[in-house]
From TrEMBL:
Keywords on record: DNA-binding, Phosphoprotein, Two-component regulatory system
NCBIfam families: PRK11697.1
SMART domains per the UniProt record, alphabetical: REC (SM00448)
Domain HTH LytTR-type residue range list: 137-200
UniProt name for this protein: Two-component system response regulator BtsR
Taxonomic placement: Bacteria, Pseudomonadati, Pseudomonadota, Gammaproteobacteria, Enterobacterales
Species of origin: Salmonella typhimurium
Length: 200
């Protein structure tokens, strides 16, 4: 079975893709998310093989989200977009494939055929590691989701319950990003096995 996670802020778009995928015997939809913060957590927990990911989402775009995923557990990325084929060229290096909205069943079949072929050859992602530095860390806490700018981060700690980010003001929030991702994509320095600190 190919495990699929659908990420799109438009409920109707998620429903349309779900209906198309449910007709496939070897596809299992393991989850749906309406934003990138939810999706990062779902990727870590559900370990999907394929991520159908909308590019244009509020706060954190699909492209930004790809850079936040742990490269060792990154699924195949199929971008969903309303952009035309000329504009999409800029995204191709980040993606296994892309689908133009509204999604056509025949075009989706081509993508699924390629995925099946690729998985039969190897069970690793084709995506290159994106080393672009993160400008902010998505956090949850104080009953809201917020983006903490890197300049405002004091330190990050890993505990049994997850990874927590403490701001320079002493406020703490939970993040779905791993310590490994934060160490490789931010200026934070590892001072201990479970701590990263901002030395700036």
């Amino acid at each position: 079975m190919i495990k699929v996670l659908i990420v799109d802020d438009e409920p109707l778009a998620r429903e349309n893709l779900r209906i198309l995928l449910q007709g496939q015997d070897d596809i299992e939809i393991v989850g749906e998310c309406a934003n990138a913060v939810e999706a990062i957590g779902a990727v870590h927990k559900l370990r999907p093989d394929v991520l159908f990911l909308d590019i244009q989402m509020p706060r954190i775009s699909g492209l930004e989200m790809v850079g936040m995923l742990d490269p060792e557990h990154r699924p195949y990325i199929v971008f969903l977009t309303a952009f035309d084929e000329y504009a999409i060229k800029a995204f191709e290096e980040h993606a296994f494939d892309y689908l133009l909205k509204p999604i056509e069943e025949k075009r989706l079949e081509k993508t699924l055929h390629r995925l099946r072929q690729e998985r039969s050859k190897q069970d690793v992602s084709l995506l290159p590691e994106n080393q672009q530095a993160l400008k902010f860390i998505p956090c949850t806490g104080h009953s809201r989701i917020y983006l903490l700018q890197m300049d405002d981060v004091a330190f990050v700690s890993s505990r049994m319950s997850g990874v927590y980010v403490t701001s320079s003001e002493g406020k703490e929030g939970f993040t779905e990003l791993t310590l490994r991702t934060l160490e490789s994509r931010t200026p934070l320095l590892r001072c201990h096995r479970q701590f990263l600190v901002n030395m700036a």
